[in-house]
Amino acid sequence: MPDKCSINLQTMQNNTKFPEIPGPIGIFDSGYGGLTILEKIRAELPEYDYIYLGDNARTPYGTRSFEVVYKYTLECVTHMFEMGCQLVVLACNTASAKALRTIQQRNLPEMDPNRRVLGVIRPTVEAVVAMTTTNHIGLLATTGTVQSDSYPLEIQKINKDIHVTSEACPMWVPLIENNEFRTKGADYFIERDVRNLLAADPSIDTIMLGCTHYPLLEDKIKSLLPKGIQVVSQGEIVAKSLADYLQRHPEMESLCTRNGLIRYFSTESVEKFSSSASIFLHEEIKAEHIDLG
Amino acid sequence: MPDKCSINLQTMQNNTKFPEIPGPIGIFDSGYGGLTILEKIRAELPEYDYIYLGDNARTPYGTRSFEVVYKYTLECVTHMFEMGCQLVVLACNTASAKALRTIQQRNLPEMDPNRRVLGVIRPTVEAVVAMTTTNHIGLLATTGTVQSDSYPLEIQKINKDIHVTSEACPMWVPLIENNEFRTKGADYFIERDVRNLLAADPSIDTIMLGCTHYPLLEDKIKSLLPKGIQVVSQGEIVAKSLADYLQRHPEMESLCTRNGLIRYFSTESVEKFSSSASIFLHEEIKAEHIDLG
Fold first, then answer.
1. Of the candidates A242, A255, A218, the residue with the CA atom closest to the CA atom of residue A23
2. B211 is catalytic
3. What whole-number distance in Å separates Cα of residue B18 and Cα of residue A251?
4. With an 8 Å Cβ cutoff, is B55 touching chain A?
5. What is the pTM of this model?
6. A246 touches chain B (CB under 8 A)
7. What is the ipTM of this complex?
8. CA B12 centroid distance within chain
9. What digits encode the pLDDT tens for the residues A96-137?
């Protein structure tokens, strides 16, 4: 394992290649939310090996600037490449919105043009565009994802006639990560933000949950909606999209090992990660610590 | 300025000394809360120069593990030494609780035994012990500060007969940093946590606000308390304690420059820091970016 100082942009600009040997699929998130995506991916593709990396020591990304989200995401992706991943999924909307394009276009060609980094926004958008009948879509997401405009921009690429209305929900992640999302205080913020979205465009028939934490609020959100509005969370969409990707790219599929194994890594302490992860997963897990930044 | 890789424990363990020339007083916080302390310090000691460093790219510290808080705090303190500070105040309760002692006992002797790092817990405790008449004190703080047990331990050193009852308030910092602390949703969490504290010990006559964000909630908290319970926030206490320290240590006082200047540094983007800082300060500020970790 290279020491801390070699994991930086210097290395990448030198066009250093990582070894081309089969490895686990990397699932990256800024915190715990990506576990909701991981769960659906493993249900869809149980035979593959996975590494989950949560940058919990620096979570949440949702309210941070472009520069910071890009820097942290690139550090984590680089580390997952060093751990042997040929394919990394950014199971984090803020990282997908603020860092994915630059990593794909600027860093990957220099680091290793054969590796792949995929995000969660494009598959979500493709699914949701096929679902709306009014052509009015709502987005509930973090401030960072909303400010990035990534969802409306991706949707416009597919269909210019679709209107997207966004509502930033900055309190939802702290409410979930502190396990306070079933309280009356949480109800206030969830009800207010959903109401604001519906008021901003009464023609919305499809609402995207553009944050991997939000599936934990799905029942509550659905209970606030008039009949006929559907809610789309990302886990199953991303899982099916990944399965489809592997089928269409046998050269990448052959570089993903298949023993049904998983390892969890976190930049936070192992105890804290394991305890908080239990809010999201339905099994006891054993995490390993990694030091980044 | 040394490059990123030289700012690490390796440098310190080599017993590298920083130059002994007069410099500004460093005020460190994990985020924006330390600005409430800085404001009071500048009101008390306006003639000195200050550097404020907010580790906003990695905030909040309040819910992070000991290991992570120690690592980040040490990086920031080291950086402030490199910028010329002879004296650094950790204007952050979590850093004071989880990192101060180790930095003072383990790192300072190796880095530079003449520099000083001071925290906010000891001066707060000294003030509050003198104020209680029932010997029952309440503490409202982040989960990290409460779990560290630093406040009860420091109080016990002064007076073993004093009972300290603590209530962790994990939602208060996100409510303040997202400027949601004046909402009904915020009221729910503030009222619940204050009520829990009072129920746990009805003899409390003095409540410490053990987080530098909480002065923004002081009026709301006071409105919830029965008559006769006093609330102590830290700004003025820390400011008076620093003035007293400089008077008692002329060798350190002579190493602090006095031109009434201030510079703000943040690990976040300059735009984001300046905009969020306006929640805490009553003036427009111009921040500078620094890259850590």
1. A255
2. yes
3. 54
4. no
5. 0.87
6. no
7. 0.85
8. 24
9. 999 999 999 999 999 998 999 999 999 999 999 999 999 999
